[in-house]
Amino acid sequence: MATSLRFAGRTAIVTGAGSGLGRAVAARIAAEGGKVACLDLAAGPVQETARDAGGGARAYPTDVSDPAAVQAAIESAAHDLGRPSVVVTCAGIGKFAHTVDMPFADWSRIIAVNLTGTFLVARAALPHLLDGGGSITTIASNAGLQGVPYGAAYCASKGGVIQLTRALAAEFLDRGVRVNCVAPGGIKTPLQRAFELPPGGDPEHLRRLMTPLGRSKPEEVAALVAFIASDEGRYMSGAIVPFDGGLTI
Ligand code: NAP
Questions:
Q1: Which of 18, 91, 186, 247 could form a disulfide with 40 if both were Cys (CB 3.0 to 4.6 A apart)?
Q2: What structural domains and CATH numbers belong to the chain?
Q3: Residue in 48, 93, 106, 209 to alter for ligand 1 test, most ligand atoms within 8 A of Cβ
């Protein structure tokens, strides 16, 4: 539960806001007084998030892998809600596959949404963040920190998000923009259904991805993101924060 108003007077851009972590982050920031621009692919779910979040939240149906669409959505959000100073990039997709069978189109789409989409949103938002300060919080995964069988594209995309985060943090460290990354693992969201074993895949390979702490909830990730993105996280930049029940110990 929100206990303070750390985002009062601020505008936030949250991608992937139609579901899972993005929806929980949008709700959390709105509950703490922020005006949230909710970006997601499909209009229906993201409009529902904006309606439920309240606090002036608005929906901007956007494909984060489309440079022109991202630019237009962020400019519209800045016009409608005021200068964005908080960005959280939750949009993401995944799929398990035997690497030798993986269609090029699947590889390309996972990289385009998870990695290129994070870059495009950061690139479009940065001029606003630099004009008065702000923060970007990216969402990677335990799969960005360790090798996951059948997950070549997903691991590569999330490892890329981690290094993108560090590069941006270094570039803007002395210009008032903090950039950090949360690397979750095992959160109960619809995304987990995308990670079905490929035909003939060995479940034993995935056994080490279980921990005694079980799974977490999107709201717990949202609470961490809210800390990092608020002024309470002012001394954090370039941090990669695992939130995975000990998966990557
Ligand atoms: P989710 O419930 O599936 O939410 C992801 C959202 O992103 C969906 O609404 C999805 O829309 C949207 N999206 C997909 N492609 C998009 C695009 N091109 N442009 C804009 N939005 C797009 O998944 P989640 O679990 O909340 O995942 C959020 C982030 O956390 C992802 O980056 C994921 O990799 C990461 N993560 C999740 C877990 C976990 O255990 N859940 C663990 C580690 C990392 P559609 O539903 O229409 O595709």
A1: 18
A2: 11-243 (3.40.50.720)
A3: 93
Atom of ligand 1 minimally distant from the CA of 112: 18
The rounded Å distance from CA 138 to ligand 1 centre is: 12
Per-residue pLDDT tens for 138-159?
999 999 999 999 999 999 999 9
Asked if residue 146 has its Cβ within 6 Å of ligand 1, the reply is no
Whether the pTM exceeds 0.85: the reply is yes
Confirm or reject: Cβ of 151 under 6 Å from ligand 1: no
**What tokens appear for 215 in the block?**
């799974």
